[in-house]
Design a protein that fits this description.
The protein is α/β, with parallel strands linked by helices and about 375 residues long. It has one domain: TIM Barrel (Alpha-Beta Barrel), CATH 3.20.20. Helix content is about 35%, strand content about 15%. It has helices at about 5-10, 20-35, 75-90, 110-115, 120-135, 150-155, 190-200, 220-235, 260-275, 290-295, 325-330, 355-365; strands at about 40-50, 95-100, 140-145, 160-165, 205-210, 240-245, 280-285, 300-305, 335-340, 380, 380-384. Strands 1, 2, 3, 4, 5, 6, 7, 8 and 9 form a nine-stranded parallel β-sheet that branches. It has a two-stranded antiparallel ribbon with strand order 10-11. The longest helix is centred in the first third of the chain and has 19 residues, at about 20-35. Mean pLDDT is about 90; it is low at about 375-384. The chain binds iron/sulfur cluster (SF4). Iron/sulfur cluster binds next to loops.
């Protein structure tokens, strides 16, 4: 079990390697096994990048497009539905909306494009598109809309099964000139921590996480994990934490910034598993490293969203692993790959977390233990 001193000890784990890191991973993996057994989950989903425009300009982002650039768009309702239909046809149960933050508040062109669709607020448009997906398809919407207020959550909660926002970091230093979050109003740690709190007060099953290797210190990483755990202790709503490793890509401000090493990733995953409440799922993206076995040995219990339809719009250079290859890698580690829903099982029995209009749909997709029921459809060698 987790030692109450782990969070304190974790500050001494910076740079841990070799046998000492291996021992830490064994401890983390034991926590994972005690709470989650040998089932490693993933969510079969289709991604809808509702808009590539954003009022922020994070130094590591390849997703964002200035309104004057090619590739700047807002998906139309027809495009959203077309993506959703392709997801349905390939056995997805979730449609994940990802989008830049409030571009209409910074760029006239974004506001005009939104106006043509009949909206003045991207959050209002997002809520309408979630409702469309609910009305027209069998999918469960999940939204990654960045920082959210009580009013915005009130609009989105009735039409989305779950929500997410990466905390990324609690480092205020990264807001300084020359740092990745400079002039990004939605990346102030205060605003993001407030969103975690707001989501908790409003009983939203919530996904968050860390982006590592963007200039934060080890202590700042530990502080971020502690902050996530603290908000979960207050509200109980954090269903999973993602540890994502920074990837250098051509064309971004941080194109030449060093990427975190595999050891750095493993010690962060192990620290996360030992600091976070064991009930919080721990996820590392499978398309960002081929080191599946190592990630499993560091204590993860989830591979996150995998799409049979769409690319990873956030990391377009990193294709999703085929499900059968991921199932084999998981099996080699002595575990079984199992599909889950966007809502983790613990929240499925609570109408306070999942709105009544979605609870029946979600429960209908689940088997007895709350994970996804098998469908007749079989693709990629894995029962969907
Ligand atoms: S807030 Fe998100 S979409 Fe906007 S620039 Fe930053 S990482 Fe990209």
């Amino acid at each position: 079990m987790v030692s109450c001193n782990d969070a304190e000890d974790a500050r001494t784990w910076a740079g841990l390697s070799g046998d000492a890191l291996a021992k830490l991973m064994v401890r983390a993996n034991a926590v994972r096994r005690a709470h989650w057994g040998d089932t490693i989950t993933y969510s079969r989903k289709v991604f809808a990048p509702l808009t590539t425009m954003c009022r922020d300009t994070c130094g590591y982002c390849t997703f964002v497009k200035h309104p004057d650039e090619p590739g700047a768009f807002i998906m139309t309702p027809e495009q959203v539905l077309a993506s959703a239909r392709r997801g349905e046809e390939t056995g997805c149960k979730e449609l994940l909306f990802s989008l830049g933050e409030k571009p209409e508040q910074r760029y006239e062109k974004a506001a005009l494009a939104l106006g043509k669709l009949g909206y003045t607020s991207m959050i209002d448009y997002l809520a309408a598109m979630c409702a469309l997906v609910l009305d027209e398809t069998s999918l469960l919407p999940h939204v990654n809309a960045g920082t959210l207020s009580d009013d915005e959550i009130a609009k989105l909660k009735p039409v989305s099964a779950s929500m997410g926002m990466m905390l990324e970091t609690v480092s205020n230093r990264l807001m300084q000139p020359g740092m990745p979050h400079h002039a990004c109003p939605d990346k102030t740690p205060k605003a993001r921590l407030r969103t975690l709190e707001t989501a908790g007060r409003n009983k939203v099953p919530f996904t968050t996480g860390l982006l590592i290797g963007i200039g934060e210190t080890w202590d700042e990483r530990i502080e971020a994990l502690e902050a996530i755990n603290a908000v979960h202790q207050r509200h109980g709503h954090i269903q999973e934490v993602i540890v994502q490793n920074f990837q250098a890509k051509p064309g971004i401000a941080m194109a030449h910034h060093p990427e975190p090493s595999l050891e750095d990733m493993l010690r962060t995953l192990a620290a996360a598993r030992l600091i976070l409440d064991p009930s919080i799922g721990l996820q590392a993206p499978p398309n960002l490293s081929v080191r599946h076995a190592d990630y499993l040995a560091a204590g993860i219990n989830d591979w996150g969203g995998i799409s049979p339809v769409t690319i990873d719009f956030i990391n377009p250079g990193h294709p999703w692993p085929q499900l059968d290859a991921l199932a084999e890698a998981t099996a080699r580690a002595g575990c079984q790959l199992q599909e889950r829903l966007t809502v983790y099982p613990g929240y499925l029995c609570d109408a306070g977390y999942v709105p009544p209009q979605m609870l029946g749909r979600a429960q209908g997709m689940a088997r007895g233990d709350g994970l996804a029921a098998a469908q007749a459809l079989e693709q990629d060698g894995v029962a969907a």
